Amino acid sequence: QVQLVESGGGLVQAGGSLRLSCAASGSTASIVAMGWYRQAPGKERELVATISSGGGTRYGDSVKGRFTISRDNARNTMYLQMNSLKPEDTAVYYCHGVFKVSPFASWGQGTQVTVSS
After folding, report:
1. Cα separations (Å) of 97 from 20, 61, 83, 85, 110?
2. pLDDT digit string (tens) for 46-94?
3. What span, in angstroms and rounded, lies between the C-alpha atoms of 113 and 99?
4. What does the DSSP 8-state code read for residue 22?
5. How confident is the model at residue 29, as a pLDDT?
6. Which residue, 50, 79, 45, is CA-closest to 64?
7. Nearest partner of 46 among 100, 83, 103, 89, judged by Cα
8. Is the preceding peptide bond at 103 cis, omega within 30 degrees of 0?
């Protein structure tokens, strides 16, 4: 199995930046793709960004041009660089992994990002 642990959340003022990290451990060779999702209070979980094993990326419309997803395969770590943060970016951010083997997908525990106006 693969374990995913997020870090890097916190409180930042609007216009500021944060970098989230998601460290993978365990059967990391089985990882097909990884991504970030977020969930604000009272809202459904939504896609932030994904990155495939080949490096292809996809972004949610609300973060395009402001957030950048990347992977360091040697460190088994995924990053989300968040710039020009807005209060509406406030949410719990979850790391997600897709694997070749069971359980085929899993979530990290989440990290809180709060952007003050």
Report:
1. 15, 21, 23, 24, 13
2. 999 999 988 999 999 999 999 999 999 899 999 999 999 999 999 999 9
3. 26
4. E
5. 85
6. 50
7. 89
8. yes
3-class secondary structure, 29: helix
Could you tell me the two tokens for 107? Answer: 């979530």
SS3 assignment for 34-86: EEEEEECCCCCCEEEEEEECCCCEEECCCCCCCEEEEEECCCCEEEEEECCCC
Two tokens, residue 65? 């041009």
Tell me the C-alpha distance between 90 and 98, whole Å: 25
Strands 10-13 and 91-99: unpaired
